[in-house]
């Protein structure tokens, strides 16, 4: 979910590409979508669209249901407790590898420092993780970032003492002194860095060191896509209108996003710097096969290998089966 990254040239492109708030009302019959999500600055356009009823002009009511544990969203989609959800691409790979028919319909943002490994002052580098307790949420972006960081430094999870924790539980555990290293995301990262006078903890590794590898996406099951294509298109349109509104009214948007994050508008802007919201003009490239990490095929190959090596998936899936690009292609036209 930026410097405002999404509040400058990227949003300007989105604003020009998407129907404005004064667009004629769509003929879509009123429908409701239950969407599972988490508190994350990169999801700002959703929060703006929800607050300002920007889905309504398209005949849609979106119910955002917040989860403390993002790993629960995928199972809620599978059980039909949710129509869809905001996940990270590595979660989709895990689902598809296990036979679920979850499909990405829209890439939302790249993590750009919003996910991080934070440690106390005694830890100088990744090499110092050896034998230490490291708290993270299994099968989550935190786990993936940690695995990648360890691999890049010639280590593996066998070199650390893994502690199963939710992202929200990391700050308290580190504040108590029981956990020297934690992997989490904003706003938890900022919370940890502000503890102990501001010089007790530091970021050792973040998603800035692995650009494009952690991508937030909007996901629906294949059956829901077939049943509610107009509603899904309407949701994407409302989201893009939210993105455009952020360009036109950055201060008001920061206040709205800050309310959801539970912080001031100024702090919301800082947290938003940790995510790059992808404009419509760039979304198509992410669905296009390629080796670059900005393509699902390129990042997917790296992610899936790490997941398989860590025993999280039985086989590497066909990445073309992880997404459905029809909505983005139609809107781009």
Radius of gyration: 19 Å
Unreliable sequence segments? 1-28
CATH topology tier name of the largest domain: D-Maltodextrin-Binding Protein, domain 2
- The helix-and-strand class reads alpha/beta
Question: Strand arrangement, largest sheet?
Answer: 2-1-3-10-4-11
Nearest-integer average pLDDT: 89
Strand content: 15-25%
- Summarize the main sheet: 6 strands, mixed
CATH superfamily of the largest domain, please?
Periplasmic binding protein-like II
Helix content percent band = 40-55%
Could you say which overall geometry the principal axes of the C-alpha atoms support? globular
Number of helices: 14
How many distinct beta strands? 11
Summarize the structure.
This protein is of the alpha/beta class. The protein folds into 2 domains: 9-110 and 213-332, Periplasmic binding protein-like II (D-Maltodextrin-Binding Protein, domain 2, 3-Layer(aba) Sandwich); 115-209, D-Maltodextrin-Binding Protein, domain 2.
How does this structure look, described?
Residues 1-28 have low confidence and may be disordered. The chain has 2 domains: 9-110 and 213-332, D-Maltodextrin-Binding Protein, domain 2 (3-Layer(aba) Sandwich), CATH 3.40.190; 115-209, Periplasmic binding protein-like II (D-Maltodextrin-Binding Protein, domain 2), CATH 3.40.190.10. It has helices at residues 9-17, 44-51, 71-78, 89-97, 141-152, 170-175, 188-194, 222-227, 229-248, 250-261, 265-272, 280-287, 296-309, 326-332; strands at 31-37, 60-66, 84-88, 102-111, 115-120, 133-136, 161-164, 181-185, 201-206, 215-221, 275-277. It starts with 8 loop residues before the first helix and ends with a helix. Helix content is 40%, strand content 19%. With 333 residues, the protein is an alpha/beta fold. Helix 2 (44-51) crosses helix 10, helix 4 (89-97) packs across helix 13 and helix 12 (280-287) packs across helix 14. The strands form 2 sheets. It has a 6-stranded mixed beta sheet with strand order 2-1-3-10-4-11, with helices on both faces.
